Amino acid sequence: MDSTPLCQPHFVFIPLMSPGHLLPMVDMAKLFARRNLKVTIVTTPLNSNQFQASIEREIQSGSPIQIQLVQFPNTEAGIPEGCESVDTLPSMDLLENFYIALCLLKQPLEELFQKLIPTPSCIICDNHITCTVDIANTLQIPRIMFDGTNCFHLLCNHNLLKVYDAIISDDEEEFLVPGMPHRIEFRKSQLPGRFNPGTQKNLNSFREAVRVAAEKSYGLVVNSFEELEEEYVKEYRRVTGKKVWCVGPVSLSNKDELDKAERGKKRNSNDESKYMKWLDSWPSSSVIYVCLGSLNRATPEQLIEVGLGLEATKRPFIWVLRGAYKREEMEKWLLEDGFEERVKGRGLLIHGWAPQVLILSHKAIGAFLTHCGWNSTLEGVCAGVPLVTFPLFAEQFYNEKVVVQLLEIGVSVGSETVVRLGEEEKSCVQVKRENVKDSIENVMGEGNENEKIRERARKYADMARKAIEEGGSSYHNMSLLIEDIINVNRLNQRAKP
User: Fold this and answer.
1) H or E segment at 451?
2) Which positions ≥6 away from 256 have C-beta within 8 Å?
3) Are 390 and 399 in contact (CB under 8 A)?
4) What's the rounded Cα separation, in Å, for the pair 298 and 392?
5) CA–CA separation, 125 and 130 (whole Å)
6) Known catalytic residue at 153
7) How far is CA 83 from CA 45, 73, 126, 263, in A?
8) Which of 126, 147, 259, 438 is catalytic?
9) How far is the first Cα of the chain from the last one, in angstroms, to the nearest whole number?
10) Beta bridge partners of residue 243, listed in sequence order
């Protein structure tokens, strides 16, 4: 039996500075720390504000977790002071500058790693932070990638990259994605930026750097659970030969009301207690929750159709308008049209951040109209509510396929084309108010098919909860990952002279 003494394993998490990437990695870090690992989360000062209180509570409960800060290189990258995350950029034209900033983090990260005690056992980082490849090589420790999506998306991209130029020409012609466990069809106009860059072609070199860095990674952690997409997990492992650990849904790490309420909360955010009181006044499964994400790129004209569709349902709803494109125009319409006054009582508008996990967990929520970002999709799955899908960009049309075609826990509003970053004005109104109203009725109305959707949604919520608990598939995968890293570090110790 090997008696080589080993320090407590030390996992270092480096999330991307964007809410959809930052929050799940913080949740994941908390879960690993609860397994008695030393865990360090590395981020910038303004980003730490979103989860500082939660980590302090973890520390008070005895968790071996800490936050280490590095300065964001605003000046060197040409980004205004105070902007340290994608959602705070004054314009998406600064995305290239943001990626330059990520590369400039290499030196401060190297300096930080020299000071960390005990020596890190591995780096778990967002796939966009490519400078960590060299750091991991220097330290001779595994670099594990976090992609932020799911194995369905990863397999789609992997298979399309090999054949894309040969099979796809027309934007609107449907094509079959090869090598998938089910028959999956898309239009070119529905694909993410790697295949559909629009004016963001200048980011292609960075996308290629991300792809190369991914190939050099030791493995991949995925915020999903095997029961949700079992065939896609197996197939992605097979075709890539990569180690893949599904350890989600990590949002379930937030068990008490305070953690749910404060997840991602920024200073001067709205008071979540008033939303809970409002929801308390409605019957079970009666309220529609609407949020198109922190990077919502729908035009004001499209959002107006969404609002009028919600009004037409005659059902109570919560509508989050956080981060809307040309938000000032939307706010002007709300005021001049009198929409907010007309729906007063049954319609609650949130003009900023909202405690999404807390809201979705309330018994009054009966449906979730979502942009299909993977975090939001999973949070809807965990809440057991049917989804009304309105994908906008990135991999969101992929996630819609998971929800509508594979899991059958939602319906589409009929969006057919991505909103390309930088080309928002070219995006016409794809979804009319009638589409919104009818889609909501298809999951909340009476009828046998509607009830089957709701029943399946509840079933997957139960699977998600069991996956993360001791004995569940994600819990087991986390154990396997920890054992793997301990073994790698033991071998590295033996190899040292």
Assistant:
1) helix 448-468
2) none
3) no
4) 7
5) 9
6) no
7) 11, 10, 19, 20
8) 126
9) 21
10) 219
At which residue do the structure tokens 């959602």 appear?
A: 87
Using the Cα atoms of residue 461, residue 362, residue 450 and residue 291 in order, give the sign of their dihedral.
negative
Q: Report how many helices (DSSP H) and strands (DSSP E) the chain contains, helices first.
A: 21, 15
Residue 187 Cα distances to 64, 350, 474, angstroms: 47, 34, 33
**Per-residue tokens: 199:** 């004016």
Separation between Cα atoms, residue 82 and residue 423, nearest integer Å: 26
By CB atoms closer than 10 A (0-12, 13-18, 19+), residue 247 is: buried
Task: Give yes or no for a contact between 413 and 390, defined as CB atoms under 8 angstroms apart.
Answer: yes
What single string gives the DSSP state of each residue in 304-317? HHHHHHHHHHTS-E
Q: Which of 21, 128, 362, 371 is catalytic?
A: 21
Question: Going residue by residue through the chain (497 aa), what tens digit of pLDDT does each one get?
Answer: 343 445 689 999 999 999 889 999 999 999 999 999 999 999 999 999 999 999 999 999 999 999 999 999 999 999 999 999 998 888 878 989 999 999 999 999 999 999 999 999 999 999 999 999 999 999 999 999 998 999 999 999 999 988 877 666 666 788 899 999 999 999 988 998 878 766 566 777 888 889 889 999 999 999 999 999 999 999 999 999 999 999 999 999 998 888 888 887 765 556 788 999 999 999 999 999 999 987 777 888 999 999 999 999 999 999 998 766 677 888 889 889 999 999 999 999 998 889 999 999 999 999 999 999 999 999 999 999 999 999 998 899 999 999 999 999 999 999 988 887 766 667 778 899 999 999 999 999 999 999 999 999 999 999 999 999 999 999 999 999 999 999 998 887 777 66
- Cα–Cα distance measured from residue 231 to residue 410, given in angstroms and rounded to the nearest whole number: 20
Report the alpha-carbon distance of residue 41 to residue 52 in Å, rounded.
Answer: 11
Annotated catalytic, 371? no
Cα–Cα–Cα angle for 41, 242, 36, nearest 5°? 35
Structure tokens at 227: 């029961």
Residues in CB range of 484: below 8 A, 6 or more apart: 219, 243
